Amino acid sequence: MSILLQGWSLYIRATHRWPGVAALIPFIPVVAVWAIIAESGLFPRVFFPGPVDVVHSFVSLTYKGILPDYLYDSLVRLAAGASIGMLLGIPLGIWIGTNRIAHRICWPVLLFFQAIGDIAWLPILLIWFGFGLSTMTFVIVYTVLFPIVLNTVLGVESVSRDLGRAARSLGASPARVLWEVTLPGALPNIITGLRNGLGYGWRALIAVEMIVGTSGIGFMMFDARRAGSVVEIMVGMIVLGLLWYIVDGWILAPIERATGRRWGLVTA
Amino acid sequence: MTTLQLRNLAKTYFDPYAGAHVNAVHDVSLDIEEGEFVAIVGPSGCGKTTILNMIAGFIPYTGGEILLNGKAIDGPGPERGVVFQSFALFPWKTVLDNVGFGPKMRGVPKAERDRIAHEYLALAGLSHAAHRYPGELSGGMQQRVGVVRALANNPSVLLMDEPFASVDAQTRMTLQEELTRIWQERRPTVIFITHDVPEAVFLANRVVVLSKGRVLDQVGIDLPRPRVWDDLIEDDDFKRLSAEVLQMVRSA
Which of B55, B83, B86 to mutate to test the interface with A (most CBs of A within 10 A)? Predict the structure, then answer.
């Protein structure tokens, strides 16, 4: 009993000191079950490699430079697509959010196009742009754009009308109201939109790379399928999961929480 | 010298659901002198907030005119400071930056506007809260910030729209006493909207009773200043004036 309590106490203190540990520990049983199934010989090794094989493959792919190169390609594409998506999406969202007529006209159209998933565009894009960067960029921008626009509109509309009026009666021009009131007021929602958009964009990117890619993590995984290398596919899957976990859990979510916490105290 | 003149002010709007024109305000004429404290009272729906929003320039008027120092008003402007029932402080700015917002819009350099903001915060006893965010303050403190933020911009007229309606009763009495004190020190021209008759009598030089979009009557309040609740609550003149105004509001 006291051993259990001591173990529990050790765990609590360790996770308090290094919060990252708390996120890793739940994966221990998952990896253990995986290892046991792989080692049991239930399935042939080539079809169902174990954790050790995956680590070996990861090290060798990294050592050969394939994994870093492809990862770099994927991340650059996501960053480029996300940047274009923000440049288009935030102004569009602000325009729709502040203009009642624009809202009436654009909102149903936005919802319609949002419903056509990114991948559903691929057949027509392949005919229009072929297997290349244009197609890939279009899909990522498209995927990132909608969450950003829709959340920016929500954010702009959530800014209390009195705040804009207060700024105007303190001498702010409409342009200053946009900069001093509308944008900061909408910021927590814009960040939520960006976070969702990057998440969807990351998934869409992998799918597109499988179909049109000549490089990237998605391409690596699909290429491994041709070679029948399950282990490399698994490396790709784990890299995708880990990378998103790091980007979302360590960067985006804390930013979202920080702005939401400060701004969220608004009217309570 | 008259600061603000409302001449036959009217507001008609079209209600698309009812399919008819609605007269929120008809034919209101008022002259407000410089340094006067005017309270406008009336039951809800009498058009008092509509009048204030038209003076502030938030909504257009459809008849008559509003003259400030002889000039017709056009949209919101810094010469008409507004204090909101919802406080309307910028939650992402510190108290100091909220109060310094008006001067900032005028292009006052940072050091100078911080000096102005500190001066006005001291006036409201808020110097200790300068670097806090509005969300960290109580409702009463937030509205003190709202009042000095409007004053720090040196407006010709201060428009207050039921500013103390959303704080608790004790805090409200304190805020009312502080407002009369600040008014005596600075003598701003104030238009104060409320449905609370004792509040109007306590604060104002003149109470305007509004009913169904028209001025029903006006009562001059010549109670001595400084006014504090401990003195006035049992004061015969205060009770008589309150009863008189209340009678008008109830008959409205």
Answer: B86
Distance CA A161, CA A158 (A): 9
- Kindly write down the DSSP assignment for every residue of A98-149, as one continuous string: H-HHHHHHHHHHHHHHHHS-GGGGHHHHHHHH-SSHHHHHHHHHHHHHHHHH
Q: Write the CATH number for A66.
A: 1.10.3720.10
Give pTM, 2 decimals: 0.83
Same structural domain for residues B137 and B166? no
| Contact yes or no for A180 and B90 at CB 8 A | yes
Query: In angstroms, how far apart are the furthest CA atoms of chain A?
Result: 76
CA distance A184 to chain B (A): 7
pLDDT in tens, A93-105: 999 999 989 999 9
Q: Give how many domains chain B has, as a whole number.
A: 2
* Distances B116 to A67, B53, B88, B100, B102 between C-alpha atoms, Å: 59, 27, 20, 7, 10
Q: Give residues 164 to 223 of B whose Cβ lies within 8 Å of A.
A: none
pLDDT digits (tens, 9 = 90+) for B95-114: 999 999 999 999 999 999 99
Cα–Cα distance for residue pair B9/B51, rounded to 1 Å = 8
In angstroms, what CA-CA distances link A67 with A158, A235, B7? Answer: 44, 9, 77
